[in-house]
Amino acid sequence: MRSRSIRSTAPLLLFAFLASGFALAEDLPGMFRKAKEQFRLGSYSDALTTLDKLQTESDKNGNESLRAALSPGLHFYRGACLAGLGRSDEAIPELKQYLAYAPNARIDPGLYPPKVVAALDAARRAADDEENAERAANQEPEQTGSLAASYRAFPKDIPPTPLSVDESWADGPVHYLMTSEERDAYSRLSDPVQRSEFITDFWKRRDPHPETPENEFREEFERRVAFADQRMAQDETRGSLTDRGQVFVLLGPPTYVGRRPLRTGEDLNDANGMMIYTDHDISNALHGKTGAQAAIIWDKMTGPNNALPNSDGNYREIWHYRRESLPQGISYLQVDFDFITKKGYGKNVMQRDDRTLSTLETARTAMRKGVIPTRASK
User: For domain 11-138, which CATH number applies: 3.40.50, 1.25.40, 1.20.58, 1.10.10?
Assistant: First the structure.
């Protein structure tokens, strides 16, 4: 989460307000900045008063776009102020609201008061407890998201994919399974009969029970492909060949899915400048700074919800895979796949990092051997 510059009130406007006898009407971002400064100074009661005023102003007609944009920050700083005042019972519900926007948010315990850090942790535990209690009450399986539920209801007896013996077969979703040697071998075949025999042998090598007429691995693979094709197509791109389709085909349905508006600065791979401050910028700004001065700079450049969300239909979709849904050999308790949609950037573009890429490669390696690689399937 990154910060953005905020315009100050024009001197001419200030003079006009003072001359007319009216109190200065601060703009909403300016009020938000004021509340943050009060919080930094430990003036929690004053900050709460400013936040209440900000809430009232944002609720007025004409402020609809900023209202949604400011909501996460309002919840965070209201909860942080309440925690700072020792009113944790009131702080936790506010911070739970904040976590609904940013479920993976963390704050640096070296830069925030211990009471605030403790309240955020308590809010996270409370949200997890509520989710677990709801699951237990409904006797739901671990995969509770709507995508997982839809896949459970998806037909299991998918008709076999029509046998394609042209060059395009290797460019379809089956390329997730092909080794480089298999791809090279197939590319050298020009005779339809030879290609047909290659494809038959390809699936035979991945049949977990060759003594039976069924090929359970192929059936599950083609079921995932059919589901992705139906639900995840983008423009002219086949659903199973999109970023989301690739993840679904290799890992199956996620444990649950979250989706929310994209805030400026959240897409680390955007070369078009979504990042307001790079790590290099932050390092330079902190050089030679210590104590409170360093804390103020750090919060300004990296603090939670300093940026306003983009309201132009940009969003991020997060697929959460818990440990039981991850391949054997992956030690993480949870792996999250982020898909960014942003005008000028793309639709549902997967954000690649070591954790997600290693998870996909582990799944791909297992599936090349005819294994559906989830602990749940063991």
Answer: 1.25.40
